[in-house]
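Predict the 3D structure for this chain.
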Amino acid sequence: MAYMPKKNHIAGACALLFLISSHTIAQSETELAPVVVTGEKGTGYVAKRAMIGGPGGTEEIELKDLPASVSVISKDLLDDRQAKVMSEAAKLDASIGDYYAALGYYENLYIRGFPLDAATSYRINGMSVTGEQNIAFENKERLEILKGVSAMQAGAASPGGIINYVTKRPKDVQSITLGTGERGTQYAAVDYGMFLGESKSLGIRINAASENMRPYVKEAKGERQFFSLAADAKISQKTKLQFDFEYQDKSQRSVPGLMLLGGTTLPSVKADINLSAYSWVLPTEIQAKNIGVRLDHEINDSLKLFANANRSEVKINDRLAYPYGCSLNSSGASGTFCLGGEYDVYDFRSDGEIRRNDHFQTGLNGQNSLNGYKHHWTLGVSELQRSVYKGASVYTYIGRDALNSFNSALSQTNGSTGAIYKILDHSQTSLFAHDQIELTEKTKLYLGHRIVEMKQAAYDVYTGGQYSSLNKTWHLPQIGLSHALSSQLSNYVSYSKGVEPGTIALPDSFRNSQVMPPKRTEQIELGSKYAMNPDSLFTFAIFQSDRPNEYAKDYGQDNDGYYRSTLVQSGKVTNTGAEATWAFKASNRLNLLSSAMYLEAKQSDATESSQNGKQAIGIPHWKAVLFADYLLPQFDNLSIQGGWTYISSKGVTLDNSIKAPGYHKFDAGLKYIDRLGNSQATYRLNVENIFDKFYWRDVSQTYGSNTLYPGSPRIIRATATFDF
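Done. Predicted structure below.
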């Protein structure tokens, strides 16, 4: 069946909102005075506060007071880089990278060398959402990345950290953005906000977007529609209610990864290659809905109540012509393509998948003095329920193809997917307590403890029968100490324990259909934070974290005739590194953002001795990022922008015998701001990879195979934003 675009309902909503805003302007009887721009020029990228750093992950705190590493990517920076998905935003931080971030599918990342957990590592306004979605940026004010063990904020999650999207709040705004790029992508978005009533006690904000995607990869076209509503209600002088709803419908043909040739050679391909470009392959469809409610009530001057509830649900129809392995000869025996570039092709379809996270959290924030010390404490309870529904997939061998040819005779099978069953019940019931104690004016002690009761039941994808269960309680302590050497410089040390839910080894990908044991983690970190001036922040941290090592082994033919691997836990991975970030307003015209990381992600004590002492797959030792925005003195409204990225080589195999080479990548951009009265137009032009450098952006071991994804070639994107 050929790809057919859907009716563009949200494009109509965009047009309607634009007409409403235009009518509002036309009916205004008050002539607004021209906006007078004062203060320093240019765009600042420095954040002072973050929500995700606080206990429970929903209370904003000062970054300089936090004994942890948190980076914040502002909306201005996301717009300047024209980031549309998380993997593009992650390029701005050296501690983050792609880890199975397939185009056309939902993405996953690593932080500090540990892959994130799609079930628990992603948040909106501090509350858990399913990571199996491409979370939209149109209604987001900023992106917060907490690096390292996050038990105090999130309970059981990846030791790499968590990513939090903070939504825009209501304000008077009327804006429309139009954009294009790559092979003819068309993009339109509207941002509309207002306050109702004379007292302005109720505010709303609506964001809508429509995108007709034509990415740089061949035959990976698709479309995306998005709508969100945010509302703030001031119920009384002491009580505030916030509501968020967002819906996204994305349909795009997925792009599979590539494999080594014969287990020894990197494939020679172009960046726009798509091994699933057969005409009969249907697009992957991902419908995502996220709903959140937050209540804040001030009991008195020193005691506040908070309550948050969130539901996140994703429905996926996953379709792909999946290139996997080589049955032609023994050169693909290790789960790679044949040495000559041939590979087996499978008709893969998994329709009707559902992931759902329900999260509730409530507690108290208080301040008081005890024995001469000031205490800022939080006490809360949290309940997270995650359910996964899935049916048996179609996974049928349909023939063989090769990198240097295209076998158009390959066709889809007549198989159909199985009945949908619940395959996972996962719950985390937590009690958390945290106390920030001011020992002196310059020294603060942080004590935290979370008790997590984790329950889990797994069910067979073919019958719905239960085959695995877990019921265990974890005690996860955290302790930190910070000392301000001056009003600008502070140092800290922290120690944390965490736990990560076990991976589900699905029968589509692995020979052992089971849920792996939870992975206990531990971390120690030392860091410094230096604010040269109010518009700069330099952070530095050294850290060591470890967790059990999990990887695929024993690739071979299963009883049903298909080739799969076995997922195992053996030994551990210890990640030791240093990272630095610097957001700096160097002058009235120059803004800089830089980031660097050095990381040793060493495997040890594994039964496969050849991988012991080696760097984990897909994790580089070095990564550095620099982005600059310079407002030209000759043209007060025109900025030139430039970016540089360096990533060192990274292992493709567990023993590091094959590596993807390191690379340098350069980007450039222009931004022009035109103001007329109270209106403003912002034009952005961005060129990524200006020297058209080929590189491997993503190397990962997922679903039993080592996969590689080429980075983007030279691409050009342009947007125009009109604020009324």
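The CA atoms of residues 648 and 662 lie 4 Å apart.
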